[in-house]
Amino acid sequence: MSRRGTRARRRRSAPAPYGGSVRRLLALPALLQIRWLCIVAVMAAAAAAYAAVLLTAPPMPPSRAPVQITR
What we know:
By secondary structure, the protein is an all-alpha fold. The chain has helices spanning about 20-30, 35-55.
């Protein structure tokens, strides 16, 4: 006995349209042939932020200085 006729036929929803605003925005550097420029700019911004944190951090107090192990 076949169950083919007893089930209601489900309609498949149309696939989501390719892309979206975020995907298009992320693909823009590749489309404009400036991928490496964007990578270098993001790395420079991260390095600058890290350097700013290191330069503005307060010095470590002497009581908490790392212990140097001598043998």
